[in-house]
Specification:
This protein is mainly alpha-helical. The chain has one domain (3-41). Helix content is 67%, strand content 0%. It is built from 2 helices and no strands. The protein has helices at 3-18, 27-41. The protein is globular and about 30 Å long. The chain starts with a helix and ends in a 5-residue tail after the last helix.
Length: 46
């Protein structure tokens, strides 16, 4: 994949999903949710 596709994926999966209006995450909770989301998107559902 080119860097543009990677940047788009990061923007979509992190910025839009985890940084929405009115959302507040503690560092530990955000890392756990991001890891779980990445596993789900990769087909490695919990």
């Amino acid at each position: 994949m080119g860097s543009g596709a990677i940047k788009s994926l990061i923007r979509q999966s992190v910025n839009l999903r985890m940084k929405g209006n009115g959302k507040f995450w503690l560092k530990d909770n955000a890392e756990i949710m991001l890891h779980a989301r990445c596993q789900c998107l990769a087909g490695l559902a919990l």
